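Researcher: I'd like a structural prediction for the single chain below. Treat it as a standalone chain; there are no partners to consider.
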Amino acid sequence: MRSSIFLPLSVSQYFILGKRGLIS
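Model: Treating it as a single chain, here is the predicted structure.
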């Protein structure tokens, strides 16, 4: 079940991108 790994990965990336955008 790769979906189980892709889901958290996408969320992590989105969270990091959002944090960077907020800090920037």
